[in-house]
Amino acid sequence: MQWAALFVMSLVRPAVGIGHGSIEEHAGQSEATWTYREEWEMYGQCNEKAGGQSPIDIVTGNIDLSDNAGVTQSVAVGPDGAFELEALAMNRAVLEESSQIKTEFVTNKHTWEVVVKQAKGEIPWIEWNNKWYNLIQFHFHSPSENTVNGKHTDMEAHFVHKAQDGSVLVLAVFLKVGAQNSYLSNFWNLFPTNTDTAVQGQVTNPYGNFLPGDRSYYYYMGSFTTPPCTTGVTWVVMKTPVEISIEQRDAYRAGISVVQDNQLRTNVDPPVPGVTLPWDETKGENNRKAQPMEGRKVYYWQDPDQTASRIGWWLLVLGAILLLLLVVAAIYYMVCYKPKKKVQKIANSEYQETKPEQQRLVQYAQPAPYQEVVTAQPMYNPVIQSVRR
User: Fold this and answer.
1) Is the pLDDT of residue 214 over 70?
2) Taking the CB of the first residue and of the last residue of the chain, which one, N or C, has fewer CB atoms within 10 A?
3) Which pTM does this prediction carry?
4) Residues 330 and 350 grouped into a single domain
């Protein structure tokens, strides 16, 4: 990505889509001299050997949590309506999420771009390590440029910010096919089909209306992802994607593909892993491949609200499991214990029916001796008395 020239050129030539940077500003090259169909070793710092390049593949097994404690000390609270993401504080522009931000919708030879034209005091901002970064513009890539464990998402949005000292921070948001994105639908049909027109418009604050509910993120130091690939850029990559309909995704890919003399790459077969099929390979792609890490670290911050919700969810699951076990135990008792008594009764009745002779013997064997003893006395006593007389 090329951002520094945008910060100057968006003021000098606001009616022309100039991309997320300009090679004229950094390397004296024409923007049209590079394309996604070629390697960029000859442009600025794009050579992989220069190191510190973006995008990257975020391997979740290799992320580093050790820096969070130090970063936490740099957190500062923004104005009313701000919220914090560890060392990342954002405002929501004029205190209200519904506030309208003046913008221009432009199309360059490789993407759609929303250029912020709001008054300086009302521009959305991010605070990172005690430095304020104003939102300058945001644009899109399809498929995503950064990947997670080797997999792309359908698109990626880049919110480009600039601090007063010229340093750059990019907030990246993954987009995956799902439900229609209501935020994007407000302006998705406003982008021109040529690079000579800028459409005036407004958008609501993306910090409050577009970002995912889970504010967990990865961050690392990288570069622009288009020539001249200038390094020293802070990247904050939201972990959780937001949804976009397949119609919205395809409309974007078709919209940037119709631009004359575009810089896109086409006919990539098979599609990169992670995108949603069907994927029209005749439509252009505008993502740079993942670059070597060269010893860099990727740090991760977990949204505490999500941690609390996960704990609550697991407690709910545990309670449901315990309840299920109680129900199973009750059913087991009813099935396996009470019926045994009935079976025993049935067994006894079968025993009586199948062995009647034995049952009669048992019934009459015991009383027989008792009857003989009882009846013996009255039978012989009279005889004994008569003999004695």
Assistant:
1) yes
2) C
3) 0.70
4) no
